[in-house]
Amino acid sequence: MERSADSLDKDAVHPFGRHADWNESFYFNFYDRDQDICAFMRIGLKPNKNEKNMICYLLPSDGHVVGTRDVVSFTGPQLQVKGLSLTRKVADKEWRLEYSGSMRRTVGSRVERRNVVFDLSYKALNKVFDYRESVSGYTELVTKVAPAEHNEQFGRIEGTITIEDTKIPINGLGERDHAWGTTDWVAPSTWTWLSGQFSEKVAFNFTKLVVAKETVDAGFIHIDGKNRPIVKVDLSTEFSKTGAPTSLKTYLFEEDGEVHEIAGAIVRTARLPFAGNLATSISLMYETLTKYRMGDATGYGVAEYLVRG
Question: Residues 148, 155: contact at Cβ < 8 Å?
Fold first, then answer.
């Protein structure tokens, strides 16, 4: 994938920063209601640590997590790691998502191997949203702990997923995230990122980041053909005894004072640990398929919780 300093090209890989934890990441998720299967994937570039990393997970209807994650040496900005490939087809509008390889399927304490192949297309349903549209001071607060630049977009994902000999047609909705800047996954006390799609015309996304005593809220709700910036988020979450999120309620505030109430119930969960810069530091990422309600509308999406373990 090409690199560019052109700020108008929101999909380009940017000139690398100098900080050791400088990172550029490309993330996609989706949920197909008919097939009842969720997936999320990410490729991260960390050139100053000579790393290129990936995660790729499926949350199918049987409730078992199927996925893989890996780190390889940085050989260039191409978005290819092991069997995962993310290819831009049309800037800011269309991507191709491909994977071929083995994944781990966790069944209780038993781990099995599954051959997985997918070929999917992502087509945007809204204009790319820049988190700078939500808040002032966002970059100044998060520059040292999380990607300072952050773009979001929802879309339709179509294609096929084959698990062993079972081929599954996919037609669902999902979100993509493109972020770049300095990243230390264990610096925030909490990092919450939620995305959800109610239809091809109604969707939302937001991040709530807590660092020390400061909080940043940023995101959008897409209604009436427009991305409407969110300037404040009130979020309450219920957790299990093991620390995993189980349900949530949130109020999204627009700048003009309009408020959107959304409730969520966690359906399935993948738990991923992340090590920090210190030998003893670790955070846990809960990537969850979540069912949302907003008024009479039902939607689905991914609610991501990063918490210190």
Answer: no
Residue 253's nearest CA partner among 225, 281, 234 is 234
How far, in Å, CA of 223 to CA of 201, rounded?
Answer: 6
| Closest of 285, 218, 234, 222 to residue 67, by C-alpha | 285
Q: What is the pLDDT of residue 37?
A: 98
3-state secondary structure of 141: helix
Helix or strand or coil: residue 140?
helix
Distances, alpha carbon 230 to alpha carbons 130, 176, 220, in Å: 11, 18, 5
Q: Which residue has tokens 């199927």?
A: 66
Task: Give, for 301, the enclosing helix (H) or strand (E).
Answer: strand 297-308
pTM to 2 decimal places: 0.91
Q: 80-81 and 84-90 as β-strands: parallel, antiparallel, unpaired?
A: antiparallel
- Render the burial of 249-262: b for 16+ CB within 10 Å, e for the rest: ebebebeeeeebeb
Residues in CB range of 308: below 8 A, 6 or more apart = 186, 189, 281, 282, 283, 284
- In this predicted model, what pLDDT tens digit does every residue of 24-56 receive, in sequence order? 999 999 999 999 999 999 999 999 999 999 999
What domains, with CATH codes, occur in the chain?
A: 22-308 (2.40.370.10)
Task: Identify the helix (H) or strand (E) that includes residue 222.
Answer: strand 214-223
State phi, psi for 203 to the nearest 5 degrees: -160, 165
User: Which residue ranges in the chain fall short of pLDDT 50?
Assistant: 4-7, 139, 143-144, 278-279
- Could you tell me the two tokens for 286? 């809960």
How many Å apart are CA 139 and CA 46, to the nearest integer? 19
Closest C-alpha among 80, 93, 55 to residue 1: 80
pLDDT score recorded for residue 9? 67
The alpha carbon of residue 112 and the mean position of all alpha carbons in its chain are separated, in whole angstroms, by 26
**What is the pLDDT at residue 7?**
47
Residue 46: closest CA among 181, 215, 193: 181
